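FW: tagging you since you asked about this chain on Friday. Here's the raw sequence from the shared folder, copied in full. Didn't touch anything.
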Amino acid sequence: MARGEAYLLLDVEPGKERDILETVRDSDCVEDAYILFGVYDMIVKVKCRQADEIGECIKNIKHLEGVGSVKVLEVADVVV
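HL: got it, structure written out here
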């Protein structure tokens, strides 16, 4: 089965950015995470060995305290 990969754009409760960043970076499925300026507060790159694992990882991030809305951008193809 193919790998699962997605970028998550998070709206985060003010003042919770650092705590959430540290929490998501400890997750096995998170490859990178950054605090942003602009419309969204954080971007998280999620990568799983199996495509069917990605939903569980995204669900766990969505349910973190302080995370508001989450926009999921699932990677369709990678050009190297």
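FW: The beta strands are 4-12, 30-35, 42-48, 67-74.
HL: agreed, and The chain has one domain: 1-29+48-79.
FW: great, closing this out.
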